[in-house]
């Protein structure tokens, strides 16, 4: 059957590729220009799925393309093989995490080979191999030396089901765990962090470099995640307390409008202020705190929720006018943002206004938003969400707009009132002036706040990179000496892997007990393991010298290959992985280990393969299995069908993925290659002119189409060419026509991007040596690209005076120019002036002199 043929061809070429290894990247002596093409490496849970099929197809298209264009291409593959699923399988089914992981890797590896992806198989890495994770430990220690890895007690996100700590990024918008679905709680633990916040400004500012090369959506998500706010830190004296309390405000201009202060109830400060208050206040505060602890972060940030809070019976002094401000604890103020305390300006902040109205607190307007602000307003840094500031003056009178009655805070532009020295200034200028006044008085300063938190990297789980630190008996924390790395994981047998909030490694006594390198006394290994996002934050560098036993990566190879030219993966990694990789790259740059500051020069997010409009998943039972599709029609048909189904970035409904149609198309192309009777030396110029035009149009258009990742269009053009060839053969020119050979060779060369097995087979049938995957591409002959001509008519005052042969795609302006310049038109016009020209390109130019 035809399907047997397909599988035989597939097996034949996969074997030849395995033997000849043609897709290995060239070595250091290779003088060709380089391209580093990378698809996000897979997590080895089960076999490949359709998401992988898309991801590795697209990177393969790009890798094959650059090879044909004469580039030395690096297209590596590896496995992101540490992580919870291996461990959960161990807990659920008693599987050994090592066996589970490496069995899955073996299966995925076989599938990727069966899929015909042109990887450099000599560079495979697994992050769970000691010779990989040793360098995670190296990285950790380098960051530690630079003060970028540190330990602190922290309120962490706690998944009560998985019994583990979660990164902020793993908490979904509804406050539940991305892993278990449980409502995430807060818990205080001592944890290791990477100080990514030191890089907040650079991570934000360097996004500008990526504009146009990364999806706009990803850039925006990263901007929001970093969330830089610009404003001031303002110090308030507190009655009965020695130290001042600092608040962060984006609106220091409104200081005269502050009528109370609000503190996060779950902050140390709130507890302290309550403790210094009456017994009654203490009780009410404790009750309130208990209820706040039950409220998710997301609910707390929900502005629609009725405001709650308790008065602490303590007072702050406004540094700008000496006013006494009552201090409240309320849960709309978050403990870990800014300083966990705000000056409340109810007239100009909606949350403060809602609170003031709920508790009957005064509202004082200090910005007259009916006063027009004229003149150039400097560009103001917008809020984290990119909200532009409105500049128009409100139409109504200020009295009508009183927030205390309308319930609507005045947030727009305007001029300052009731604000002493700031009166009359525009809001923008008042912000600047207020900061100057605060700085002069020593009670405040310009400041920035970020939403970005430090990266919590320790996990109390087994299947990860051990943290290479020792805790000495006398309480010091010291790095494991470099020559003792890697600290390898102990075997899991006999360890209780069930999550319980402390690492299973702690119970591996003989493993945990070690020696303090300085004193020779006993020291305990840190029992925690690293977040697997550490593993993937630098893996693209390890591919450059994967077997290197002496260093994480070879700096010379990094100079030669990195950054990655083309990176592709799912949009689910828009924040976590990409932000961490950017951070680590910048840290390595600062250590002088790489000479670039951004890891991925261009990024594409492929869409999902969906079924009937919804995501495929095991739980929904609507999985289309990768292996089933391979078995049914072969790798090439699946690859062509996926590439043809739509633009790379779009979701593709499986209903629109026609493997049957793709298989028919491939059979048609292959049949033609077998029919060709001319030999490779035939002179193409003797061939059918119309077919030659279609072929050369393909050569002319395909580079741009591939480089713009319009792969579906390229497939359409191949189909068009195959149809044209068939028509030419059957139309009388026959299979011996030189243009037929030229065209089908073009098909084989370009089809290699999509259907490499079929393309190799065609290439062989056409009398060439393997491999078509390494064959150079062809240039379009420009003389064959001239477009079809049409006849345009030029009229003067309604009479036809000339006809012109013009390209069918001529523009109106160009056509009018040609018409006016035509000799016959000039003669017919004499000394009359043209007063009007109506042009309908490409057919008519109508000139009037009256
Ligand atoms: C006074 C003020 C007046 C404010 C005004 C805003 C408008 P973004 O832009 O999101 O950074 N704030 C500060 N720390 C907070 C915390 N821990 N929890 C909740 N809110 C906090 O917001 C900065 C503004 O959010 C700050 O500026 C502060 O309120 C509040 F007309 O100060 B503002």
Automatic annotation (TrEMBL):
Entry superkingdom: Bacteria
Task: Give start and end of each Methionyl/Leucyl tRNA synthetase domain.
Answer: 36-171
Domain Methionyl/Valyl/Leucyl/Isoleucyl-tRNA synthetase anticodon-binding per the UniProt entry, residue ranges: 689-810
- GO MF entries: aminoacyl-tRNA deacylase activity; ATP binding; leucine-tRNA ligase activity
Q: Which residues bind ATP?
A: 618
Q: Where is the Leucyl-tRNA synthetase editing domain?
A: 223-369
Renumbered to this chain, motif 'KMSKS' region spans: 615-619
Which GO CC annotations does the UniProt entry carry?
A: cytosol
Q: Does the keyword rRNA-binding apply?
A: no
Q: What is any one GO biological process for this UniProt entry? A: leucyl-tRNA aminoacylation
Which coarse location class describes where this protein primarily resides? Answer: cytoplasm
Q: What class of enzyme is it?
A: ligase
Q: Which Pfam families match?
A: Anticodon_1 (PF08264), tRNA-synt_1 (PF00133), tRNA-synt_1_2 (PF13603), tRNA-synt_1g (PF09334)
Q: Where in the cell is it found?
A: Cytoplasm
Q: Which InterPro entries match?
A: aa-tRNA-synth_I_CS, aa-tRNA-synth_Ia, Leu-tRNA-ligase, Leu_tRNA-synth_edit, M/V/L/I-tRNA-synth_anticd-bd, Methionyl/Leucyl_tRNA_Synth, Rossmann-like_a/b/a_fold, tRNAsynth_Ia_anticodon-bd
Q: What is its EC number?
A: 6.1.1.4
The catalysed reaction is: tRNA(Leu) + L-leucine + ATP = L-leucyl-tRNA(Leu) + AMP + diphosphate
Give every Aminoacyl-tRNA synthetase class Ia domain span. 452-650
User: Where's the motif 'HIGH' region?
Assistant: 42-52
Q: Quote the protein name from its UniProt record.
A: Leucine--tRNA ligase
UniProt source species: Microbacterium ginsengisoli
Which gene specifies this protein's sequence? leuS
């Amino acid at each position: 059957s035809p399907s047997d043929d397909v599988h035989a061809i597939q097996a034949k070429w996969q074997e030849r590729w395995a033997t000849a290894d043609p897709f290995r990247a060239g070595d250091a002596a290779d003088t060709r220009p380089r391209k580093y093409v990378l698809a996000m490496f897979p997590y080895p849970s089960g076999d490949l799925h359709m998401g992988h099929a898309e991801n590795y197809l697209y990177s393969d298209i790009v890798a094959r393309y650059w090879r044909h264009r004469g580039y030395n291409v690096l297209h590596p593959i590896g496995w992101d093989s540490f992580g919870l699923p291996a461990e959960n399988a161990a807990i659920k089914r008693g599987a050994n995490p090592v066996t589970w992981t490496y069995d899955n890797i073996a299966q995925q590896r076989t599938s990727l080979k069966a899929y015909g992806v042109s990887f450099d198989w000599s560079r495979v890495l697994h992050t769970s191999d000691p010779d990989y994770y040793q360098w995670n430990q190296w990285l950790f220690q380098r960051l530690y030396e630079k003060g970028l890895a540190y330990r602190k007690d922290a309120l962490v996100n706690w998944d009560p089901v998985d019994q583990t700590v979660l990164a902020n990024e793993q908490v979904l918008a509804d406050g539940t765990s991305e892993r278990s679905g449980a409502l995430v709680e807060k818990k205080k633990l001592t944890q290791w962090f990477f100080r990514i916040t030191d890089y907040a400004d650079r991570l934000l500012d360097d996004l500008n470099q990526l504009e146009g090369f990364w999806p706009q959506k990803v850039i925006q998500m990263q901007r929001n995640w970093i969330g830089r706010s610009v404003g001031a830190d303002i110090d308030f004296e507190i009655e009965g307390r020695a130290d001042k309390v600092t608040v962060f405000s984006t609106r220091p201009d409104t200081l005269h409008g502050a009528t109370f202060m609000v503190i996060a109830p779950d902050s140390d400060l709130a507890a302290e202020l309550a403790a210094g208050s009456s017994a009654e206040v203490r009780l009410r505060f404790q009750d309130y705190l208990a209820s706040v602890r039950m409220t998710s972060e997301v609910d707390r940030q929900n502005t629609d929720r009725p405001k709650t809070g308790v008065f602490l019976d303590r007072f702050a002094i406004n540094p700008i006018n000496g006013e006494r401000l009552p201090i409240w604890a309320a849960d709309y103020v978050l403990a870990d943002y800014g300083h966990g305390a705000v000056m409340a300006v109810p007239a100009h902040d909606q949350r403060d206004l809602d609170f003031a109205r709920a508790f009957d607190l005064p509202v004082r307007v200090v910005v007259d938003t009916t006063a027009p602000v004229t003149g150039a307003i400097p560009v103001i840094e917008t809020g984290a969400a990119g909200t532009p500031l409105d500049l128009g003056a409100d139409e109504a009178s200020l009295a009508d707009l009183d927030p205390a009655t309308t319930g609507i805070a005045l947030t727009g532009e305007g001029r300052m009132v009731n604000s002493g020295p700031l009166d009359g200034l525009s809001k923008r200028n008042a912000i600047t002036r207020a900061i100057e006044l605060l700085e002069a008085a020593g009670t405040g300063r310009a400041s920035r706040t970020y939403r970005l938190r430090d990266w919590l990297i320790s996990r109390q789980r087994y299947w990860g990179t051990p943290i290479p630190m020792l805790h000495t008996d006398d309480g010091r924390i010291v790095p494991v000496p470099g020559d003792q790395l890697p600290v390898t994981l102990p075997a899991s047998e006999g360890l209780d892997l069930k999550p319980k909030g402390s690492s299973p490694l702690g119970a591996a006594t003989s493993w945990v007990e070690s020696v303090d390198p300085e004193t020779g006394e006993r020291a305990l290994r840190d029992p925690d393991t690293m977040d697997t996002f550490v593993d993937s934050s630098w893996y693209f560098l390890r591919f450059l010298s994967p077997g290197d036993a002496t260093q994480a990566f070879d700096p010379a190879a990094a100079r030669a290959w990195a950054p990655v030219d083309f990176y592709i993966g799912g949009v689910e990694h828009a924040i976590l992985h990409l932000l961490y990789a950017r951070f680590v790259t910048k840290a390595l740059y600062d250590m002088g280990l790489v000479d670039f500051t951004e890891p991925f020069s261009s990024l594409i997010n492929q869409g999902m393969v969906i079924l009937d409009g919804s995501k495929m998943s095991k739980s929904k039972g609507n999985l289309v299995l990768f292996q089933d599709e391979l078995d049914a029609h072969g790798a090439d048909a699946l690859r062509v069908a996926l590439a043809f189904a739509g633009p790379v970035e779009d979701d593709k409904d499986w209903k629109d993925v026609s493997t049957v149609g793709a298989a028919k198309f491939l059979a048609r192309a292959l049949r033609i290659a077998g029919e060709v009777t001319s030999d490779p030396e035939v002179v193409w110029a003797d061939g059918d002119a119309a077919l030659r035009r279609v072929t050369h149009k393909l050569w002319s258009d395909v580079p741009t189409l591939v480089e713009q990742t319009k792969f579906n269009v390229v497939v359409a053009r191949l189909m068009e060419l195959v149809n044209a060839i068939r028509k030419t053969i059957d139309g009388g020119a026959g299979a011996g026509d030189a243009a037929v050979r030229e065209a089908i060779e073009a098909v084989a060369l370009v089809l290699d991007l999509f259907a490499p097995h079929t393309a190799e087979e065609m290439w062989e049938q056409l009398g060439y040596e393997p491999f078509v995957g390494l064959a150079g591409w062809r240039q379009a002959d420009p003389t064959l690209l001239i477009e079809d001509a049409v006849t345009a008519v030029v009229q003067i005052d309604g009479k036809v005076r000339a006809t012109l042969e013009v390209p069918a795609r001529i523009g109106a302006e160009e056509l009018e120019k040609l018409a006016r310049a035509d000799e016959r038109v000039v003669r017919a016009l004499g000394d009359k002036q043209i007063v009007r020209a109506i042009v309908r390109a490409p057919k008519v130019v109508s000139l009037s002199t009256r």
